[in-house]
Amino acid sequence: QVQVVESGGGLVQVGGSLRLSCTVSGLHFDTTTMAWFRQAPGKEREGVSCIGWSGSTTAYGDSVKGRFTISRDNAERTLFLQMNSLTPEDTAMYYCAAGLRWGTCTSEPTAGQYNYWGQGTQVTVSE
Questions:
Q1: Which of 54, 63, 100, 105 has the highest CB neighbour count under 10 A?
Q2: HEC per residue, the chain
Q3: Per-position pLDDT tens, the chain of length 127
Q4: CB contact at 8 A, 65 and 111
Q5: CA-CA distance, 99 to 111, in Å (whole number)?
């Protein structure tokens, strides 16, 4: 059984930082493409970032480029998202998702490419 569990969300002020984590079990994490998505109330789910199985390829949505950094620790089966210079527009539920084995990541992720999802962790950025 695949389990995807996010953590690290919370309340932060404008300009602050947060680091999200996602631990995965039940699949070959070290050979699986991973991604972060987010969804704000009343808005569609948005692809934030993805990372290929080896960590050598990454991609970001335009709204987070230069501020967010995705990384992974295959030995610890953990995905990370370092978020800096946060704005109120970053307020959303953030989801971790697992995709294809042996995949690369060359463009902003789309939900249809990912098979397993976590329950989400809430990020709220206050003025």
A1: 105
A2: CCEEEEECCEEEECCCCEEEEEEEECCCHHHEEEEEEEECCCCCCEEEEEECCCCCCEEECCCCCCCEEEEEEHHHCEEEEEECCCCHHHCEEEEEEEEEECCCCCCCCCHHHCCEECCCEEEEEEC
A3: 999 999 999 999 999 999 999 999 999 999 999 999 999 999 999 999 999 999 999 999 999 999 999 999 999 999 999 999 999 999 999 999 999 999 889 999 999 999 999 999 999 999 9
A4: no
A5: 9
The answer to whether residues 10 and 18 touch, using CB atoms and an 8 Å cutoff, is yes
Residue 53 tokens read as 């199985």
